[in-house]
Design goal:
The complex is a heterodimer of chains A (about 290) and B (about 300). Helix content of chain A is about 45%, strand content about 15%. Chain A has helices spanning about 10-15, 25-35, 40-55, 60-70, 100-115, 130-140, 155-170, 185-200, 220-235, 250-260, 280-285; strands at about 90-95, 120-125, 145, 175-180, 210-215, 235-240, 265, 275. An 8-stranded mixed beta sheet of chain A has the order 3-2-4-1-5-6-7-8, with helices on both faces. Chain B is an alpha/beta fold and about 300 residues long. In chain B, about 50% of the residues lie in helices and about 10% in strands. Chain B is built from 12 helices and 7 strands. In chain B, helix 10 links the parallel strand 5 (about 245) and strand 6. Chain B is elongated, with a radius of gyration of 22 Å. The relative contact order of chain B is 0.17. The chains are: A alpha/beta (about 290), B alpha/beta (about 300). At the A-B interface, helix 2, helix 6 and helix 9 of A face helix 2, helix 3, helix 6, helix 9 and helix 10 of B. The structure holds guanosine-5'-triphosphate (2 copies) and magnesium ion (2 copies).
Amino acid sequence: AKTRTVLNTDVTELFSSAKSIDDDLFDNLEERLVTSDLGIDITMDMMARIKKKSRGLSTADQLRQVLKDELLTLFHEPGPPAPSIPTPYVIMMVGVNGTGKTTTLGKLAMKYKAEGKKVLIAAADTFRAAAIEQVEIWARRAGADIVRHKEGADPAAVAYDAVEAGMARGADVVLIDTAGRLHTQKNLMEELKKIKRSVDKKYKGAPHDVMMVIDATTGQNALSQADIFHKAVGLTQMSVTKLDGTAKGGIVAAVSSTMKLPIAYIGVGEAIEDLQEFDAKRFIDALFDD
Amino acid sequence: MFDNLSDRLDSVFKKLKGHGTLTENNIEDGLKQVRLALLEADVNYKVAKNVISDIKARALGQEVMQSLTPGQQVIKIVNEEFTKMMGSTHQELSFAATGATSIMLVGLQGSGKTTTAGKLAHFLRKIGRKPYLVPVDVYRPAAIDQLTKLGKQMDVPVFASTTDMKPLKICQDAKLAARDLGCDTLLIDTAGRLHLDDTLMAELEDIKKGINPAETLLVADAMTGQDAVNIAGEFDKRLDISGFVLTKMDGDARGGAALSIKAVTGKPLKFIGVGEKNTALEPFHPDRMSSRILGMGDTLSFIEKA
Ligand SMILES: Nc1nc2c(ncn2[C@@H]2O[C@H](COP(=O)(O)OP(=O)(O)OP(=O)(O)O)[C@@H](O)[C@H]2O)c(=O)[nH]1
Ligand SMILES: Nc1nc2c(ncn2[C@@H]2O[C@H](COP(=O)(O)OP(=O)(O)OP(=O)(O)O)[C@@H](O)[C@H]2O)c(=O)[nH]1
Ligand SMILES: [Mg+2]
Ligand SMILES: [Mg+2]
């Protein structure tokens, strides 16, 4: 059977002050959490928590804040900033195919340039067709330097050279673009480890950040992705792209909570300025927008 | 991470030893487990609900077969229901009766359209057709380069689009160029876009009207979560898609989006993408999908034989 319209219940109505707290409301909330891709485990946990806290409350609107507060506890806050920021500061972008690594890197380059920093990009996706040309365009847009080798070259060598060039030229930030890869591909994950090792070899302690880029339309698989990427290269933060669509991206809350990983940025479009700092409160509010 | 559904069902049905009849009372807990498995696989919430009620209707009153446990019996019904939903046989591509065929690839950003265009070119050539790659993504940095390189790798001709050309004009010019080159199948690689981007969706409608493709394929990522229904629903509403392709099936995503997209559009899943190389495309076989979604490999083939 065709079910063309799969619509959520209207939120204002859902949390109306005229509505009592009953099973019907809980069912609706459960649906909302599941359809935001929070995942079954977190949804069940949230439902249990708010059911407990709902005792003593009488109307649906009172439950809204309770739920939001509970959701807020999922997000792992970033630790205190390091006492001194190393220069160049090296950030490596990682993630599965097509999530928005290169685009996010381009946006980040722009952000750092706007802060007056000298930025250098490593075109270390030497595999995907025209990946080098793509990141070159982003470098040009942002006004950043780029280190590139030929297509098919060893990505670890590109990253090494870029860090070396960054140190020699006094760059403030080095951004390393890597090829998308599925976490299940062992040889490609080994390659990623090698890129990281070769950066560290040139510059002890680098990369200082390993940023996992997650597509907001991703479902439960993001948990497996983050877990395996983390085991391979030690993630320090993540960014969520494509939040300008209709996907709520709830799975990143699950990832942040289970992996204790902070979310740094969100992508809200394809243009260079479409990058925002992550704000957990706004993110949660958006889960309840229509 | 997930307990196998069949283990879970077996523990639920412990009480119902040997064979018996599936009744309203004893099936409820089992269906709850099936529902959880569907949601863990990213099958849409409402779609899962409908599937469960269909399964329940079929299961009630059924005798449990001698050779199966009640849990296995439920899985057998689930499996049959899935296979029925996904279509029972592989759906071939359609080609225009006369003149060149156009195949249009559409979808969200990064879903795998360009890569799939390259793969389809390889596939088409193997079945004796003469493909022509047409880059229509004039927006994404180096998108034209990307498809051009894929064509070069395989020695398949590529239309020489430039970013200052209008997408519809590219398609029209490419049709003429294809005829001159003796190519019979155009693969139209469109730019990724959000289904709620009215301007860009209208652009696709214009292209579709202008070139009258034999196939309009939605290219979707197998890792897509609950939003798959909104995406597919909207692309289908505006473009009346002829089918869909699910990419990145080489990972460990359970691929519940396949069921959601099928439920919402009624259109067939024609191919799955299983890697980044030009050869990594497989015709979709509906019978293999349920074991994937339910996260059970061998158990299912055992039950199927029963
Ligand atoms: N709407 C929207 N599109 C985005 C966003 N971020 C990236 N994209 C688009 O998503 C597509 C893929 O982006 P890329 O940056 O190439 O992704 P990637 O992870 O580098 O891809 P691979 O290198 O092939 O793995 C492109 O069409 C981008 O324009 C975003 O925040 N919103
Ligand atoms: N592992 C794997 N990767 C794939 C598959 N299909 C595509 N990809 C990868 O996914 C990423 C995005 O693929 P593209 O073909 O550029 O996606 P697109 O839909 O054309 O992207 P836009 O044009 O930006 O919207 C690339 O890194 C591809 O190599 C697949 O079946 N398996
Ligand atoms: Mg990239
Ligand atoms: Mg493309």
